[in-house]
Write a structure and sequence with these properties.
Layout lengths: L1 H12 L12 H4 L13 H4 L8 E6 L9 H4 L1 H6 L4 H10 L12 H4 L4 H8 L2 H15 L8 H22 E12 L1 E3 L2 E3 L1 H12 L2 E7 L4 E2 L2 H7 L3 E2 L1 E7 L3
Parallel strand pairs: 1-2
Antiparallel strand pairs: 2-8, 3-4, 5-8, 6-7
Length: 243
Amino acid sequence: MTSKLGEIVSDLNGTNIQLDLFADNTRQQNVTYKNIKLYPDSCLNILPGLRSMTYQAVITSPPYCNRYDYTRTYALEHAMLGIQEHELSDLRQKMLSCTVENREKDLLNLNLGRASAVRSCEKNELLQSVITYLEYQKTVRKLNNNGIPRMVRGYFHEMACVIQECFRLLKNGGMIFMVNDNVRYAGAGVSVDLILSKIAEDTGFDIENILVLPNGKGNSSQQMGVHGQEILRKCVYVWRKPD
């Protein structure tokens, strides 16, 4: 406790404040950065334009299938960058479907090469059982938002397209490390880890591991009130493109 209070006092005194947010400390740390490029667009638009067999690894934590609207979560940061409301709305529709406000994307019209990714979803028994259950819950008015089945379907279809593109972009032997959470709707857990890993396997990846983090994630307070508490898996997927 004393040590932590000392850190707080030191921060308040300003003795350890870095005045330059983007200070170049690479010389002191013997670190060299090369060819770093940021692409200001959706991965659905950027990935198809990148060269095949180029990268050795992909490290990613995509949006989760949890109705989390990242455009609103980071609204303050967007405002500081001068992004207007209509630009936020456009960004929300471009990004991977993870909120009920996302409209369905015409994936095949945008890129005919995505047909195999869509087929992988359509033949995924676990995913189809989840969608069937959610559509039924919508019919009997048990969902708190009727857009959930569309969002879940869109999420996995779009993620299948991303996985397909990552397979194309990786060199043989290349790896994917992906962080993602399982979710729950209308009392039913959605095993995002198993569904995406099966899609990855169908795409050609070897599933090296699904690392389950020791502390899971609880479901929402609304669902706990009706369905009780259920700890959901938080995972890191490790996939490898064969040599």
